Structure formats: C-alpha cells, structure tokens
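In this supplementary section we document a worked example of the pipeline. Step one takes a protein sequence of length 194 as its only input; no multiple sequence alignment statistics are reported here. Step two produces a three-dimensional model, which step three serialises into structure tokens for compact storage. The input and output of this example are shown verbatim.
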Amino acid sequence: MYAMQYELTLPADYDMEIIRRRVATRGHLLDDFPGLGLKAYLIRERGETSPVNQYAPLYLWTSAEGMNAFLWGPGFQGIVDDFGRPEVQHWTGLLHLEGAAPEALPRTALRHRERIPDSVRPATAVESALAESRRLATLSGVVATALAVDPLHWELLRFTLWEGEPRSGIPGDRFEVLHLSAPERDLLGRGKQW
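The serialised model returned by step three reads:
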C-alpha cells in the first residue's frame, strides 16, 4: 500500500463551490481505476475548522503501477492544467484497517501527521502508532483508518475516515469528504503491511 496526497491551497476568497462542482462532475472517473484502493476527495474551508481553503485528495494505492498510471496520465494532468503542478507527498503503507462502520459513507476525514523525534527508535514509534490506529478502528463511526510513514523525513501519517463528526480530542486536520472512489478497497489488505 502507498499513500499519496497533494494539497491545493486556494485564496481566502476562493469560491469552494467550484471544487464541489468539479468533484461532483469528475469524481466518478476514478470509481473503477486499476490499482486504486481508495481516493477520498477532501476539502477544508477557511473559517471555524481550518485556516485555509484547500482541496487535498488523499489516495491509498494497492500498487505502484496504479499510482504511476494516474500521475503520468490524464487524471493528474487535469489538476496540473487547472491549478499548476503541486508537490505530491507520498508515504509507504504500514497498516490499513476497516473501522467499526465499514459500510458507512464517510463524511469527514482526519489527517494526523507526526514527525518521529530523533531520540525515538523508528520501530518503537511505529509500534506505538500501530496500537493507536488499532484503537481508533474500534471507535463508533470510524469507516476506515490507515497508517503510513515517510522515511525521508521520518514522518508518520494517520488517515481516518468518519461516518460523521470525529470524536473530540483526536488530533488532526479535519476535512470534509466530498466523494469516495474505492475500486480496490478490498485489496488494501487488513492490518499490518509486513
């Protein structure tokens, strides 16, 4: 499993209905994309829960071939043509779990990024993060959760889809889920990825 995300931070006065319409008319195009476990079409709007307007889709790929076919194909080129070429962040997958509400349509996502301090052994940090992800998966309203790591920057990424509002006290950036494409969600595996 590979996690991938790009963030398009938009002007403070940007009409986010443009993004909503874009997803409503184009989101279905990846509903059967080979190699895609899932894509959550995420936005956050400047105001109460976010300092910025942002379109930031997050992908979980079942294969590098699927990820490459997207990045070098017409789908990503559409983003480049309309918004410029964004920096694409990617992480190696560590864990994917279906949550307590796996059949529910997710409405909200939390993304928690955490740098592994130099003083902490990477394996220790990963084991602790795996335990937290397993705990999250059991919470009411959780659709799915994934954990990944960027070993260049030693950063952990936890991504959790929620049926409604996330439980309070769980850290992370909150996003609204506009659409979920999940053609190969069942191939993402369950549990630890090694």
